User: What shape does this take?
Amino acid sequence: MSTVLVVGASRGIGHEFARQYAADGARVIATHRKPEDAERLRAVGARPLALDVLDAAALADFGARLAADRIDVAILAAGVYGPRTTGLEPPAPTDFDAVMHTNVRAPMLLIPVLAPRLVAARGKLAVLSSRMGATGTMGHATGWLYRASKAALNNVLKSASLELGPQGVICMAFHPGWVRTDMGGASADIDVTESVARMRYVIAAANDSHNGKFLNYNGEQLSW
Ligand SMILES: NC(=O)c1ccc[n+]([C@@H]2O[C@H](COP(=O)([O-])OP(=O)(O)OC[C@H]3O[C@@H](n4cnc5c(N)ncnc54)[C@H](OP(=O)(O)O)[C@@H]3O)[C@@H](O)[C@H]2O)c1
Assistant: This one.
């Protein structure tokens, strides 16, 4: 049985990853913040584990709480958008810290903790990035704090791929599509079920050539 870790599984894309992997028979460890979300995760067959990714001490201690020597698939889904800016509005320091700590610092603290378990399984690491983090194709400045955080996350993923790829781990950054969730909103392009099903297919089929790549949810390679 494969072991899947989903960080940020209380709702949205992370929750759907936990639901689909558990329905397929995987052993799913799914993190949440609020106590009331634990029951919803149990109901879909996942094992809930409390984790606030803003808590650096909890991230450092996370390995000890994981109770898994091997992780076949790790999905880092927890993320926040921050202020819905349209131009060059200066971010409030609290917004800057919340977005950067959630979207960038947390993966930088978590990936080293997960690395030995991913190496043991020759597993796969997927971070949920966004096309909004792509610098080369950027057309406007909307949500520039979120964009900056996802560009930084892409860079973090690339570093991880260079370190972990030679040890057999396939590291990928995904744009999940514009998905109907609390973050994506009701008028987004695609349903969360479809986004996750497509990404799971890409993850399952991924080989060494996918290591260090930025991928659309349908497997198409995106430019940084
Ligand atoms: N939806 C889209 O169209 C879209 C597009 C591109 C990229 N993405 C990315 O995909 C990922 C998932 O997005 P989504 O649409 O599912 O967002 P969402 O519906 O807003 O859900 C966000 C998830 O992140 C968790 N989270 C936020 N801060 C956290 C913290 N400090 N500690 C632990 N968990 C935390 C939330 O937990 P709580 O319930 O506890 O708040 C929730 O489970 C994000 O990284 C997002 O940037 C989404």
Q: What stands out?
A: The domain at 3-216 is CATH 3.40.50.720 (Rossmann fold). Strands lie at 3-7, 27-32, 47-50, 73-76, 124-128, 170-175, 213-216. The mean pLDDT is 97. Residues 8, 10-14, 33-34, 51-54, 77-80, 102, 128, 130, 175-176, 178-179, 181-184, 188 surround NAP (CB under 6 Å).
